[in-house]
Design goal:
Oligomer: single chain
Largest sheet: 4 strands, antiparallel
Number of helices: 1
Strand content: over 45%
Number of strands: 23
């Protein structure tokens, strides 16, 4: 993203808005009136869009609980919660209470940096990729009042990106530096309820590998289309691969 944000991302004509000298990751809120950015340090700065396009954006909040570089931000569109992870091996869920963002620590149990975060479609769970060769699938434990994680392993290098099926909260894809893209079950009975059929298969226990495809380079990113039927991933050898979920079972 560099040092500027394009207003085209939130509608209207393109113009350069200089918020920080450096921006290493960012996330918009649901209506694109606010943006959270990491200025290449351990903080997240939240800016508010002005009523007039030419006016200055205002810094409304600073989230500074992390002790190392923030690596990714995810802003939930339904619950308005902000999710962050960092090189300090932690993740936090931030909830706006009044005019203050309160943080809840997530128990990740990882030994290396968190690299990527994504909320699932219903925002009751989220995933954290990491340098620990695994993905943490996290949900809220109401009895103990904190976020807990269950691990999906079966990777041999850093998981640099994760993506949820937008039509299902039990299917997750991972992009890994071991030259492979994978699709797993992220089913948690206490959260997801009764098992259900998906295009990738039934929902067995968490971590079941539905699909694996090799690439000819590090897999850098992965995503599903809006219907969840097609998976795409980009690898370091300048290729984009598309996978038909209906035909891959």
């Amino acid at each position: 993203l560099g040092c500027a944000l394009a207003a085209a991302e939130c509608g209207g004509g393109a113009m350069e808005i200089r918020l920080e000298d450096k921006i290493t990751c960012h996330a918009w809120n649901a209506d694109r009136t606010m943006v959270a950015v990491c200025p290449n340090n351990n903080e997240v700065h939240i800016f508010k869009k002005p009523p007039q396009a030419e006016a200055m954006w205002t810094r409304e909040h600073v989230l500074n609980q992390h002790s190392a570089l923030v690596t990714e931000i995810a802003w939930a569109s339904k619950t308005n919660r902000i999710l962050t992870t960092a090189q300090d091996r932690n993740a936090y869920v931030w909830t706006l209470e009044g005019d203050t963002w309160q943080h809840d620590l997530v128990i990740l149990n990882i030994s290396y940096a968190g690299t990527s975060v994504k909320w699932c479609a219903d925002e009751q769970k989220f995933a954290v990729g990491s340098g620990s060769k695994m993905v943490a699938i996290c949900s809220f434990d109401a009895n103990n009042n904190f976020w807990v994680s269950k691990q999906i392993k079966n990777h041999t290098s850093t998981v640099v990106a994760v993506a949820w099926d937008p039509t299902s909260s039990v299917i997750i894809a991972t992009a890994c530096m071991d030259y492979k893209c994978r699709v797993f079950s992220a089913y948690i009975k206490s959260v997801d309820g009764k098992e259900a059929e998906t295009r990738w298969g039934k929902n067995p226990k968490l971590g079941t590998l539905f699909f694996e495809i090799p690439a000819f380079g590090w897999v850098r990113d992965v995503c599903f289309d809006a219907t969840g039927s097609t998976l795409a991933f980009a690898s370091h050898n300048s290729t984009v691969t598309f996978v038909d979920g209906e035909r891959s079972r």
